[in-house]
Specification:
The chain is mainly beta. It has two domains: about 55 residues, no CATH class; about 80 residues, Immunoglobulin-like, CATH 2.60.40.1080. It contains two helices and 14 strands; from the N terminus they run E-H-E-E-H-E-E-E-E-E-E-E-E-E-E-E. Strands 7, 9, 12, 13 and 14 form a five-stranded mixed sheet that branches. Strands 6-8-11-10 form a four-stranded antiparallel sheet, with no helix packed on it. Strands 1-4-5 form a three-stranded antiparallel sheet, with no helix packed on it.
């Protein structure tokens, strides 16, 4: 957590430390590192007020900053695993359902049709094995990719 301090007292080494009144937030601060670090995986989502205390001799300055950690969105969907080449695959989105999310689909070469905000049809022109993938972006945070393998069978297969 870099910072800049001007007007240091000459020949005086300051004491600088980050802290918080919240024990969870405090446990995420590492003042031993130079510069100090804040680990969001330890702090978890939510509001975290970090206080910088700077001391030279008897002079103490404090300032704070509010760090808001937002949840990581989750990408997921349900569908059949196998369809005929003449059929469309109905995909139902089941991930993070928050306004403002952006869905980024990897259709595996299929043509995707939006039915509603949470249901989609995928249609492949030829039989084969395909992978459908999805990532979610929300508030600048990106989900881990979610993928599912789909088998599209030829109608004449086995005749």
């Amino acid at each position: 957590m870099p910072y800049t301090i001007a007007n240091n007292l000459p020949n005086e080494v300051p004491t600088v430390a980050w802290s918080s009144s919240n024990p969870l937030t405090n446990s995420a601060i590492n003042n031993a590192a130079n510069p100090a670090t804040f680990n969001p995986q330890i702090a978890k989502e939510g509001n975290h007020t970090l206080v910088l205390t700077y001391q030279q001799k008897d002079c103490i300055w404090k300032d704070s900053i509010l760090v808001v950690l937002k949840p990581t969105p989750v990408a997921s969907f349900t569908s059949d695993n196998k369809i005929c080449v003449s059929d469309q695959l109905l995909v139902t989105y089941t991930g993070t359902s928050t306004t403002g999310r952006v869905l980024t689909w990897d259709t595996g070469g299929a043509v995707k049709t939006d039915i509603t905000a949470t249901t989609f049809n995928f249609k492949w022109a030829t039989a084969g094995s395909y992978t459908v993938g999805l990532e979610i972006t929300l508030n600048g945070c990106k989900s881990d990719p979610f993928t599912k393998n789909i088998t599209v069978e030829d109608l004449n297969e086995g005749l």
